[in-house]
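stuck on this one:
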Amino acid sequence: MRDLLDQARSRTPGCCAVSTEVWRGGRPTARLTSHPDLGQLHGASRLLTDSPMRTAADTLLPVRVDDILVDQRWPEFCATALRLGLRSLASAVILRDGYPVTGTVYSLRPRGLPGYATSLATAMLHEGGIVLSQLQAYAGLRRETMNLTAAIAAREVVEQAKGFLMHARNCDADEAYAELRRTAREGNMRVSEAARWLVTTRPVS
């Protein structure tokens, strides 16, 4: 995503910085910026009742500010932006999994962005959505693999503990498992935890 932000900044004439936000419940819940100074702007905007990005998220329409110095729609936001030297911006919005996602490009000059700036920001958001979908799919597969690995490891230690009990108590597999369950219940543990405790603490013959 950071690479996409950098690409959007370099492909937009006059652009000095780019940000993207995910909105849930009328508030930004995730944000990424191409420039650290934007952290000050967005840190302040979280406390404001309105901003260009919030308007875009609420209306699902792009927002353009040709001169932050003279635009009076978001006075507190604009005052903070001016302190950072920003003079114009364009914010696009798309819906992703039912939530608005905004992408904003900024310029240090009034009317410093081309008319197609919001189109470029929209393209960045769509590209970012593809990247995020791929990352989410990868993360899901990774979680599934980790869960499967943990389940296999737990099964192995349970079988090992059952084997130890069968040998030590001269009992069958069902009786050994029942003993594991009893130990787990008394110790307020899962069966796999009881098995691991038994395997790691049993006397070495």
Summary: Residues 117-169 form the longest helix (53 residues). The two ends are 56 Å apart (CA to CA). The chain has a mean pLDDT of 82.
